[in-house]
Design a protein that fits this description.
single chain, mainly alpha, 86% helix, 0% strand, globular, membrane, Lipid III flippase, transmembrane helix, cell membrane, Polysacc_synth
Length: 414
């Protein structure tokens, strides 16, 4: 597939995912308000952390190694080792969450009344990891069409389940919907891949255990995990700083602004990672990367600026449509967030290259450094500059990230 055809397929998937997310956030915003949205964001950050631990974050490794090896036997060795890692870490994480459910409920929800939801989460984690495992293999095999169809079905199901449960059961319903989706989407994914690949992804033979591939997958996993956990923890810390210095409502406004930026970012970074990550794994010359980089930027940059212009013209209408009139305060700084996301889309090309070339240490250092700088900025300046100042800091840090990644790419060897 070319970048254009990949972009078309992933754009359909992204459009459905974003539309589903928008409708779901609209339901949450209407029924739960800014405070509810902030609490949902808190829980989602926690789920992101424990999910990363439960599947060892090895999906990127499975994807790149599957794309790298054309030999079916070697691919199966990659899959078996990935499955062993997945199941082992999922079991450990689930046991930990189950044992400490009481404490976790207090930390996340500030109450033990939601302990049953934590118990349910502990049982569903294995399915979340297995679903990511399936999608990583399909992407690595280059079956973008099937990958897109499965993801579209997942988005639609999540929308229906979370929205319906939120309407009928309010906050508890929203949380339960997020948790139950993990299990149901695995069943859908398995049914879809069985038609094409039968049970070839789930061959569990210890004879296929390979120490070298096992270590490689764990290296990818450690990088993805640390990157993910750094972002998730920083989001929680930033939210706590906002709450302590102003209100939970302001934390909800910031959550809404970041969600819009996230959806904007996803439109472009999703096709970039799906199309370019497998390609970058096969590159032997730095010159080839910059040719691909130029190709991508020329194609997506005008589209990104067009999106920003449209949002600027209709910002009041769009924010009211996406959330409710309680969130109109974010119009003051939303454009700054979107310009920061344009930079972060460009950064994703460099980060995917570093990941494909196993520059794990460099990625972790860059993620930690830039995230730490942003959290430090929030801690020092939020009380003075408020949410508008936060958005400026987000843009400044994004500029810093871009130059850091460019410098790092120039240093790596092919």
């Amino acid at each position: 597939m070319t970048i254009k055809s990949t972009f078309i397929w992933t754009s359909i998937h992204t459009a459905i995912k974003i539309l589903s997310g928008i409708i779901m956030n609209k339901v949450i915003a209407v029924y739960l308000g800014p405070v509810g949205l902030a609490m949902i964001g808190q829980f989602q950050n926690f789920v992101a952390i424990v999910s990363s631990i439960s599947n060892a974050s090895i999906q990127t490794g499975i994807l790149t190694q599957t794309a790298k090896f054309n030999n079916e036997h070697t691919q199966k060795i990659v899959w078996v080792n990935g499955l062993i890692i997945n199941c082992f870490f999922a079991l450990l994480t689930s046991i930990f969450i189950f044992i400490f459910a009481n404490w976790l409920s207090k930390q996340i929800f500030f109450s033990i009344n939601y302990i049953n939801l934590i118990y349910i989460l502990s049982f569903s984690l294995i399915f979340y990891g297995l679903n990511l495992y399936i999608l990583a293999i399909i992407n690595g095999l280059g079956n973008i069409k099937l990958y897109t169809i499965i993801n579209m079905l997942i988005s639609i199901l999540t929308l229906i389940l979370v929205s319906v449960l939120t309407i009928f059961f309010k906050f508890e319903g929203a949380i339960l919907g997020i948790i139950l989706t993990q299990s149901i989407v695995f069943i859908i994914s398995y049914m879809m891949i069985y038609r094409h690949y039968k049970n070839s992804f789930f061959i569990f033979r210890l004879s296929l255990f390979d120490k070298s591939i096992f270590k490689t997958l764990l290296s990818y996993g450690l990088t993805s995990f640390l990157s993910g956990i750094i972002v998730a923890i920083s989001s929680i810390v930033v939210r706590i700083i906002i709450v302590n210095n102003s209100s939970l409502e302001n934390a909800g406004l910031w959550e809404a602004a970041i969600k819009i930026g996230f959806y904007f970012n996803m439109i472009f970074t999703l096709p970039i990672s799906i199309f370019y990550l497998p390609k970058f794994s096969t590159l032997n010359m730095k010159k080839e990367f910059f040719i691909l980089f130029k190709q991508a930027i020329v194609f997506i940059l005008p589209i990104m600026f067009l999106f920003v212009i449209i949002f600027f013209i209709f910002k009041d209408f769009l924010i009211n449509l996406l959330f409710s009139n309680k969130f109109l305060a974010i119009t003051d700084f939303m454009i700054i967030i979107l310009f920061a996301e344009i930079l972060r889309v460009s950064i994703s090309l460099f980060s995917n290259l570093l990941l494909s070339k196993k520059a794990f240490k460099e990625i972790i250092i860059l993620e930690f450094l830039t995230t730490f700088l942003f959290v430090l900025y929030v801690y020092v300046f939020y009380d003075i500059l408020g949410l508008f100042g936060l958005s400026l800091g987000y843009l400044i840090i994004s500029f810093c990230m871009l130059f850091m990644y460019i410098y790092q790419v120039k240093r790596i060897s092919f």
